[in-house]
Design goal:
Blueprint lengths: L2 H17 L8 H11 L7 H9 L17 H7 L8 H4 L1 H52 L5 H9 L3 H39 L2 H19 L21 H9 L4 H7 L13 E2 L3 E7 L6 H5 L2 H8 L6 E5 L7 E7 L25 E6 L4 E4 L6 E4 L6 H13 L5 E6 L15 E4 L3 H27 L12 H5 L8 E6 L2 H4 L5 H15 L4 E7 L9 H6 L2 E4 L5 H8 L20 E5 L6 E5 L4 H18 L20 H8 L6 E3 H11 L1 H4 L4 H8 L7 E7 L2 E9 H17 L1
Helix pairs in contact: 6-9, 7-8, 10-13, 14-21, 15-18, 22-26
The structure holds adenosine-5'-triphosphate.
Protein name: Cell division protein FtsK
InterPro entries: FtsK/SpoIIIE/SftA, FtsK_dom, P-loop_NTPase
Pfam families: FtsK_SpoIIIE (PF01580)
């Protein structure tokens, strides 16, 4: 292109720019390629550029200059540092696990061969004559220079006399000195052996004889029949490679991935080398633009098929603090659900503190996952039979081993899976019936009342003792304060939240406990198999700190347990299979969701942990309530009801309709009374021996009869109860 043409092109460009709106994005590539296509001219005259820059219509550059982003220091500061030591060296349980495995491996190998030593010895002895013959034969062949025989034969056959004579002379020389070596050895060796035979102690003689026999046996053994068999057969797992991952991703049917892998596509990038990570391989993958880890999680099964690995081995995960397309793909050597169930450290551990992390399970890589229960509440959800009760029981066993913790345990299914806890629990009930649901509700009321008491105690404490206005390990130790950890567990809590009579009150109490209980040392543990808004009030699911979700049907249940948008973020418990029992997503224990397999303690093991916890409690003097043989109060009554009625019905109102009373009660304590009906008040007063009665009122000139209370009845019963309490 000559300068004329070039100027013409830029004139055109300028006029285009002038026509367009200000700041319009120009297709510079097009312009550039037009330039290069038509000529050899390799640069724009500097005058042209400066003119552009000076004119007000300078095109807007939308791409940053090539070198952009943070400066060198910022990049160095922001760089991610790789751990100095490998994970297994930093984590004590992993180190212990690896050391234990090594000791076991060495021990097994040693024992295996020790048992077979007589067999190995007999085998070698049997082969020693053949070994001796091989040694003698080999020596004779060496002395007679047998290895040169084929060459001599060849020279003779080809009648190459010169070569033959040369080889024969070499042989004669060799035979001479080799024969001398052997003769000398025999001359020295025989008398030496004879002397040893006569003079050496029997032990040394036997040892040398045995060694000789074994060596001869080893020499006599055929190469294809090893004497020592293998103690362990190593499993060979196929290495995870980038082509395998690309092949698997390409088979997912995601258009963007196919485009990236196709001809001219940008391919798939791996920001770090694929490496061994625990008992599996870890690959970090940058998915093509626009593809998220959630897209892959949706197709985990297909991915596993593409990798030719069982589903339980393939665990794609989002990477914390990275873009949505960065995937950590961990491919285990063995399916997670095929590993031997691990009872975990609770089986043998001594005392625990709920203020510190307690063992809960292991992640895919076998590393221990702990949970801190204090200042938290836990929600466990899954389809029936996936391991909710076992997971809940793990947490309760940990709580049982903290002798200070008061346990209230309710299992509303009636299978008795939590029965071992009855040995240590202040209150325990199991059953699908109304009475158990009512008792569980009573427990909630008790906890709620205790919440009020705890709040008062904390408020009355000097600031230096309670600087953060919450229960501390120190305060929990002081028995007189009554600020010990209070753990209330309800398995199949949907039974309570869907109960005809109790659902409203149960939901209100639970919500209040979840909201206020954390700082006051109250821990609520809930497990449900029906995570929907009717069976698990949203106020509860929204306020729980730690969530564990095993297999569920779909997005709604997933997000109900794990929290809103978790499914979209790729945390999908619906991808677990039927055999993934006890395996779930744990959210809230650390910053990022984890896949965890809960420790598996069967009934007898749970029983033995509870027995140990019981003994520890007896020793510490903290065994209380039902576990201590005290009769539980099962009156089904709300302890504050009478006082509450007296508070909302002034003495001048002698008779008040139930509906008026509950309206006022709901204003006083919405968490307890909201949703009560007139009938419920009548039922709630019955255990106190108070009957409601028909009360007539004239409305619009007509007499309307409705059930109501007589205030003096309430006041009398309340006074009697107070007297009794004072006397008792
Ligand atoms: N961590 C685990 N590892 C291996 N297997 C487990 C684990 N947890 C539970 N299981 C198995 O799953 C089975 C069901 O467990 P569990 O009774 O806790 O389920 P669930 O969800 O409470 O059931 P349901 O909804 O019927 O009450 C148990 O019998 C046990 O064999």
């Amino acid at each position: 292109m000559n300068h004329e043409d070039e100027n013409e092109l830029f004139r055109r460009l300028e006029s285009e720019m002038a026509e367009g709106e200000p700041g319009r994005v120009l297709d510079f590539d097009k312009a550039r390629s037009a330039r290069t296509a038509s000529a050899e001219a390799d640069s724009v005259p500097p005058t042209d550029r400066s003119e552009e820059a000076e004119s007000g219509d300078t095109p807007v550059m939308v791409d940053p200059p090539a070198i952009s982003g943070p400066g060198l220091m910022e990049r160095i500061r922001g760089a991610r540092r790789n751990a100095l030591l490998p994970g297994w060296l930093r984590s004590k349980p992993e180190l212990l696990d690896a050391a234990g495995w090594l000791v076991g491996y060495v021990g097994h190998t040693a024992a295996y061969h020790a048992i077979r030593t007589p067999y190995y010895a007999a085998n070698l002895a049997a082969r020693s004559p053949l070994g001796a013959a091989k040694v003698v034969g080999g020596t004779l062949r060496w002395v007679s220079d047998a290895e040169g025989e084929p060459l001599r034969q060849a020279a003779a056959a080809s009648e190459d006399i010169g070569e033959y004579l040369k080889l024969s002379r070499q042989r004669d020389r060799r035979v001479r000195w080799r024969g001398a070596v052997v003769a000398l050895s025999l001359l020295v060796g025989f008398p030496a052996a004879l002397a040893c035979y006569v003079l050496a102690p029997t032990g040394l003689l036997a040892l040398s004889g045995t060694a000789l026999v074994l060596v001869l046996g080893r020499v006599g053994a055929p190469a294809d029949k090893p004497i020592i068999s293998q103690a362990v057969v190593p499993t060979h797992v196929e290495r995870l490679t980038s082509p395998m991952i690309e092949r698997a991703l390409g088979a997912l049917g995601i258009a963007e991935i196919n485009k990236a892998l196709g001809k001219g596509g940008e391919g798939i990038t791996f920001p770090h080398p694929i490496r061994q990570d625990g008992p599996g391989w870890r690959a970090d993958v940058d998915l093509p633009y626009g593809v998220t880890v959630a897209d892959i999680l949706d197709r985990r099964e297909r991915l596993a098929s593409g990798l030719r690995r069982p589903l339980g081995c393939v665990w794609p995960e989002p990477v914390p603090d990275e873009h949505a397309g960065r995937m950590m793909l961990w491919v285990g050597h063995q399916a997670l659900n095929k590993g031997k169930p691990n009872p975990g450290p609770l089986l043998n551990s001594g005392a625990l503190s709920l203020f510190k992390p307690v063992p809960f399970g292991t992640d895919q890589r076998g590393r221990g996952v702990d949970l801190t229960l204090m200042y938290d509440n836990v929600l466990i959800g899954a389809m029936p039979g996936m391991g909710k009760t076992f997971a809940l029981r793990n947490l309760l066993l940990a709580a049982a081993l903290d002798v200070r913790a008061e346990l209230l345990v309710w299992e509303l299914k009636g299978t008795g899976d939590l029965a071992p806890l009855a040995k240590v629990a202040a209150d325990y009930g199991s059953g699908p019936d109304d009475a158990t649901a009512a008792a569980a509700l009573e427990s909630l009321r008790y906890v709620y009342r205790d919440l009020e008491r705890r709040a008062k105690v904390i408020a009355s404490l000097p600031k230096d003792k309670c600087p953060e206005n919450k229960v501390t390990a120190e305060l929990a130790k002081t028995k007189s304060l009554g600020l010990h950890p209070l753990v209330l567990a309800i398995d199949e809590c949907q039974e309570l939240f869907m109960h005809d009579k109790y659902r409203k009150e149960a939901a209100n109490l639970c919500t209040a406990i979840i909201k206020r209980g954390r700082a006051l040392g109250v821990i609520l543990l809930l497990a449900t198999q029906r995570p929907d808004k009717d069976s698990l009030p949203t106020a509860i699911s929204a306020n729980v700190g730690t969530r564990f979700c095993m297999r569920v049907m779909g997005q709604t249940e997933n997000d109900m347990i794990l929290g809103t948008s978790m499914y979209k973020r790729g945390i999908q418990a619906s991808t677990f299979t039927k055999s993934d029992k006890g395996i779930g997503y744990l959210v809230g224990a650390v910053d990022e969701p984890q896949i965890v397999r809960g420790y598996y303690l069967d009934n007898p093991q749970a029983d033995s942990v509870c027995e140990r916890a019981r003994q520890a409690r007896i020793k510490a003097g903290t065994l209380s309530g039902m576990a201590a043989g005290e009769e539980p109060q099962r009156e089904g009554r709300n302890e504050t009801l009478l006082a509450d009625i007296l508070a909302v019905v002034p003495p001048k109102e002698a008779k008040v309709w139930n509906e008026t009373v509950i309206e006022r009660l709901a204003e006083l304590r919405p968490e307890t009374y909201e949703g009560w009906g007139a009938e419920q008040l009548t039922a709630a007063l019955k255990p106190f021996g108070i009957e409601t009665t028909q009360i007539g009122r004239r409305i619009d000139g007509k007499v309307v009869n409705r059930r109501g209370i007589i205030r003096v009845d309430i006041a009398r019963t309340a006074a009697e109860r107070d007297d009794k309490r004072d006397a008792g």
